[in-house]
Amino acid sequence: MPIFVNEALVEPEEIKSLPGIYQHSIVSLNEECREISDLGIKAVILFGIPKEKDAEGSEADNPDGIIQKAIRRIKEKFPHLVVIADCCLCEYTAHGHCGIMEDGALLNDPTLDRLHSVALSYAEAGADIIAPSGMMDGMVGEIRYALESNGHYNVGILSYSSKFSSALYGPFRDAAGSADNFKGDRRHHQLGPGQRREAIREAAIDEDEGADMLMVKPATLYLDIIRDIRDNTMLPLFAYHVSGEYAALENAIENGIMDREDALRETFISIKRAGADTIITYYAKALAKILA
Ligand SMILES: [Zn+2]
Q1: Ligand 1 center from residue 96 Cα (angstroms)
Q2: Do residues 152 and 181 make contact, with C-beta atoms less than 8 angstroms apart?
Q3: What was the pLDDT predicted at 55?
Q4: Going by C-beta distance under 8 Å and a sequence separation of 6 or more, which residues neighbour residue 208?
């Protein structure tokens, strides 16, 4: 279950484009995790919205940053809940890009230095799994090195290895507050929808660099890619059913165009059938209730 934690909030706030999904305050996080845990959901993936943003995304590796606080709080109160920390700079940079910029271009290697430090900071706060999502070349190797050379041998890496540049991320940018003044796009580092072999190659590269788990994102428009990667690796494979997939389905259900339970069952069975071991979805709580 994805959770958004907003440093500026006192009360939880519903995300307009994701009906039923909230940004949480550090306080309401507690109740949300209790509900998630009571429903039998085993893991959460955290996204932070800091109060302050700058060119380097300095808040991302602040030891008292919003995600570091959230990780410590969850691990203290719900030690059995697996905490995955999404690791990218786009929620923390004032320009909204996933890394360090120069003359309008995203610089890959200086961004790796930042990811090294951010991943380490999340591990030190107690994260079980670091999930680099920026599709930088070499990000998994750099984070593996950061963790191993600092004694965090038991922290796993879930790579967003095969992440497509997609129209389905719109509501997420609302949710993560990363759209405000964002100019440009992520097409030069995320995959284009037609890049099937490149998606498999990216997964293989991340496995070589030391990823423990791989991911395909989004899910339903990329079921063939999930199957391709399933057939090419023995690693656990995640599929991320993203914000736009949730919003589209939710709109259809709310307008009586589809039956909720039928639509959810078919959607998630198809992702599983394609080869995903684990699904990240805003429907986690709804599905847990159906399955119970
Ligand atoms: Zn990013």
Answers
A1: 8
A2: no
A3: 95
A4: none
Instruction: Please tell me the predicted confidence (pLDDT) of residue 193.
Output: 96
**Whether residue 193 has a cis bond before it, omega within 30° of 0:** no
Identify the pLDDT of residue 181: 62
Residues of the chain with pLDDT under 70: 178-181, 183-184
pLDDT digits (tens, 9 = 90+) for 67-85: 999 999 999 999 999 999 9
Give distance in angstroms: CA of 291 to centre of ligand 1.
Answer: 33
Q: What's the gap in Å between 92 CA and the centre of ligand 1? A: 9
Q: Which string of b and e fits 54-66 if b means at least 16 CB within 10 Å?
A: eebbbbbbbeebb
Q: In angstroms, what CA-CA distances link 168 with 48, 205, 207, 217, 221?
A: 20, 25, 26, 10, 10
Contact, 216 vs 276, CB < 8 A?
Answer: yes
What is the whole-number distance in angstroms between the Cα of residue 97 and the centre of ligand 1? 6
For strands 43-49 and 2-6, give the pairing.
Answer: parallel
Q: Which of 90, 68, 72, 77 has the alpha carbon at shortest distance from 32?
A: 77
User: In this structure, what token pair is assigned to residue 36?
Assistant: 């998630």
- Say how many Å lie between the CA of residue 185 and the centre of ligand 1: 11
As residues whose CB is below 5 A from the ion ligand 1, the structure lists 88, 90, 98, 134
**C-alpha of residue 99 to centroid of ligand 1, in Å:** 7
SS (H, E, C) 129-184: EEEECCCCCCHHHHHHHHHHCCCCCCCEEECCCEEECCHHHHHHHHHCCCCCCCCC
What's the burial of 187, exposed, middle or buried (CB within 10 Å: 0-12/13-18/19+)?
exposed
Active site residues: 163, 217
pTM (2 d.p.): 0.96
